[in-house]
Design brief:
The protein has 2 domains: 76 residues, no CATH class; 86 residues, Alpha-Beta Plaits, CATH 3.30.70. 26% of the residues lie in helices and 30% in strands. It contains 4 helices and 12 strands; from the N terminus they run ββαββββαββααββββ. The strands form 4 sheets. The protein has a 4-stranded antiparallel beta sheet with strand order 2-1-3-9, with no helix packed on it.
Amino acid sequence: MQIENISQIEKREFGFMFEDRVNPAKLNMHRYKAFLTQRELEWYIREYQPAHCFVSTTYYSSSFDYKGMIGSDLFFDGDYEKNLMLPRADAETIYEALLDDFALKEVTLNFSGSKGYHVIAFDEAPRILDGRARREIVDYMVGRYRVETIDAPASCDLRRLRRITGTINSKSGKFCEVIKTSF
């Protein structure tokens, strides 16, 4: 499977989880990694074979802290341990609501490779929304559409890392993949 082409890659933070050399059952997170090109990212993943690969929803001008933030993709995380049908239905609802109710144009619905789905809006306009505004959108989805599986703290987190599509979720052995895209 092909690794996702990361837009504005030079403005993103990356994180990777690797097996601990002493205790292989333990995973260690390596964050604050940057790449200038897609080719560098793909080489890194092939060369080091991390167990998990993540990219920030946030765009940074310089340092990977709040001072360097210049925006964040609108991100929704939905998980449910017992049945993947419910988070899939909720993710479909969020996807359609972003297109119809919010008139967004660049939206994807992704399978996380494990117990849920991610809906991401890449449109520029919502990138400026703060955590409170994102919480209002989450509340709207819950109130209007009865979305049950949305993880509100993860969905409102401006500095969230999300899985890179086209990489394997080592917990399940399945790929994180795009299910639907509007662009």
